[in-house]
User: Fold these one by one.
Assistant:
Number 1:
Amino acid sequence: MKPFTIRYLRLLLLTASLAGLVWWVAGLLSPYIRIGVNASDSLPGWVYVVWPGDKANLRVGDTIGFYPPVNPYYPNAFLFIKQVAGVAGDRVEFGGEFSQGADFYINGRRLGIAKAFSRGGKTLQHSAGGVIPPGYVFAWTPHSDSFDSRYTVVGLIPATQVVVGAQRLF
């Protein structure tokens, strides 16, 4: 084998070993600390450590982990990693004709588009607008293909489903 190939294989083995060790340690610490995998490119990084915290004081911009409702896109008990875009008292609005997607706003600030179809061609429906009630958050990422609170199947996230803090590892 060429020296470059051997170095590459050693690095790959080391990375896999470290990832396995982190996963094992997180399993020992669970339910206190969990490992979340960002399965898309909606946020930078693909492995996050997630821990419980103060659910009563979630703020816009916080990165959180949560378990979404059962949906046709991800397996049950799949931990989502998203950011808080709206909290209790914030107003969510959708504008435009939805057949091609709809702009969505929180407190009058445009955050993006709720698409009419998934990347796989499945029909999507945007969430209902209105004021976010106490005990809920609007979770999202700025990526145009993010599967988040802008869609009915995810909707507003009850604080009871939020794990709270999430920090990128890799």
Number 2:
Amino acid sequence: MTEREQNIVVGCILGDGFIQATGKRNARLRLEHSQRQKDYLYWKWAELKHLMQDRPKLLQRFNPVWKKTYTYCRCQSHSSPQFGKLRALFYHEQRKRIPEGISKWLAKPLTLAVWFMDDGYYFARDKTAYLYLSPLATPDIKRLEQTLHQAYGLTPKLERKKTGALNFKFSAAATKRLIAIIAPHVITSMRYKIGEEPRID
């Protein structure tokens, strides 16, 4: 796995990606996105192509709560010890965690950009950005805060929604800085997440 591939994979793990154990030492990366974001998933697949199985597939899932069928895209990697090592770092007893050495990857703008494309949101009215967090323990959140501050000078505010979900909120000034850092790595179809409309070819 090249450095670029590692940076993308870790960005996925921080965001919507999931590393599934396939044995004592092996694991695989599973990626899923809505149909609207299929171009983004194809970009991930192309970047990680030699690690992946078949091309992304369109699938459907029925939600019994909302009584609706949703179409989404999925692809996954081959099972390997490389992903097994990443699973050991980022998971403990099926729960996601943030390893002490997270700065190795998160200090790279590409990793931050992938994380933001996965879980970020730009609120145009206030010109502020949000990063939604997986359920994490307090020490894990502190590691993320520390890395964002040390690597980029970013100090987001931790917010808890009524649902209990957590997110980082960036001030307008911090959002401007964040966008400047990640913009070179944000693909065309996802540029709406940094306040731009995606280009229509």
Number 3:
Amino acid sequence: MQRARPAPADYHLISVMANFKTFEARVVRSIPLSDFTKHLELEVEGVNHFGYVPGQWLSVKAVTPDGEEMTRAYSIASPPTDNGHVAFCLNRVEEGFMSNYLCGLEDGATISFQGPFGDFTLRPPLRDTLFIATGTGVAPFRSMLHWLLANKERHQDHEFWLLFGARTEEDLYYKKEFQELETKHPNFHFLPTLSRAPETWKGLHGYVQEHVGEIVGMRSDMHAYICGLDKMVKANRDLLKTLGWDRTSIRYEKYD
């Protein structure tokens, strides 16, 4: 989605100072997720370990053909690892230089970036949590969920729901991956919903906000993380507030 420190050993994520050093990263692989979206995996060069907190983003720099330096922010779509790899979930924007530039990179190409930045991160104490995403807004949740579910001590006493909205099944990025996580972890529930579902679709129909109530019920003791277009974020924030949620239990990141 267009948006350092080692990953902590337990849930207690503390704030991270923004790192303004410029890094170079090499493209390890570029995988189409749909006709207009790519998964771009990068290896940060010149460091033994590149640390960040799940949910943070990087500021990517590039120079346009007419010599203008451009920067764009992208959420990290991968959990912290020891191999220095980070990933982006990129959606091509019509006439958008940076998204098309990045989506067009081949294996071995290099990019420059600064970061990590951002505080859209999991906040302690951990509670049962609803993650709500549309489109490439699923990127930070891929990072968070892989990190959470990789260690039983982090997640064993809590339930997690990923309510992921898209127009068509093709736009449910990382669908198979989330289904495998759901099979492996009984406390993780993957709930894809399509606004333009065919008759053969067996999942949820409509928009994500139409299903929040049936997930949370009368509860207000949970956390909610919301990421996607401004209109969707606002609709879900307003809904949760009408259900009695305190605003401190609702964290969000939106994009145009």
